[in-house]
Amino acid sequence: MKKKIRNDIILILVPLLLCIGYAVWVMYSHHAGGYVYIEQAGEKVGIYPLNEDREILIGDKDGYYNVLVIKDGRVDMTEASCPDKICVNHRKIAYEGERIVCLPNRLIVRVEKDGKQADIAP
Question: Which range of residues forms the domain containing residue 23?
Answer without folding.
Answer: 1-30
